[in-house]
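From: lab user (bench 3)
To: helpdesk
Subject: output format question, protein + NAP

Hello, I'm new to running complex predictions and I'm not sure whether the block I got back is the full result or only part of it. Here's what I submitted:
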Amino acid sequence: MIDQQTRLYGLLGHPVAHSLSPAMHNAAFRAAGLNAVFLAFDTQDVEGFVRAMRALPMGGASVTMPHKSAVMPWLDGVDPAAQRIGAVNTLVYRDGRLTGYNTDGIGALRALQAVTQLPGKRCLMIGAGGAARAIGHVLVHQGVELSVTNRTDERGMRLASSLGCRFVPLQAARLGEADIVIQATPVGMGPGDPPALLPLEGLRQGMVVMDAVYNPLQTRFLKAAAEQGCLVVDGLGMFVQQGVEQFRLWTSMEPPVDVMRRALLQSLTGNR
Ligand code: NAP
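Helpdesk reply: Thanks, we reran it on our side. This is the complete output you should expect:
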């Protein structure tokens, strides 16, 4: 029941119509018996949203494209990991202080750790956008031997240099040279997209292949990888885990992971 005691959480982004976060977090709040609700706010007015958060007050928020970096100057504090990544996807309002965190990287980390050990592994990351940046930071921190490749060399080189890792131009990158491959571009979302940006020949048994794309859940890249006996990690694993970490930051409670995953799966299949 929604009443005067209901704690408000929300998503700051533009657009937000297809976001899966409300379904995931509302299911989690219900399962945990919390009097809280999560709404999606489609706005370009970042400063206005932050003012509203303090005034109402809201308990916390998720932040998505295109506001992950733009919101940072309006906060009272930013977690050091999010500061290094240069983006926040989570806001926590507690004791009059608004603090920013980034749970995208930790989400990917948890999803990968469920299938493999990371230290010392050779990882090829395809992409150099926000997701790649967040994932790259946690992987380097875990002692992964990371290489970055990207459609636009300059952006890829910039990310590699900030991570202190190797950049490989797309034409020279080979899937077969890695133990772990992470696809962190939107390629695979569109029906006319190629299966991957690199030739699939290098896929081999036992290799870990993760796709950040979660709609469709099984991209053509993941399908090809599974057919070659790779251990596949879908984008939903990362999405659930970044949400799990948000729930923990907002409530200090143990998150109902299975409920969150089920709610996401239901909205994904319902959206088709
Ligand atoms: P972004 O900041 O816009 O970066 C996009 C990246 O993809 C850039 O490296 C870009 O290369 C590359 N790219 C875009 N279109 C391409 C194309 N047609 N061919 C080749 N490369 C292309 O986006 P992002 O936030 O990193 O998101 C990337 C993907 O990850 C999205 O599909 C997003 O939904 C997904 N994601 C998933 C999660 C999760 O929890 N599962 C979390 C965050 C993001 P250039 O530098 O050449 O432009």
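A quick orientation on your result: The pocket of NAP is lined by residues 104, 107, 127-132, 150-152, 155, 184-187, 189, 197, 212-214, 235, 238-239, 242 (CB under 6 Å). Let us know if anything else is unclear.
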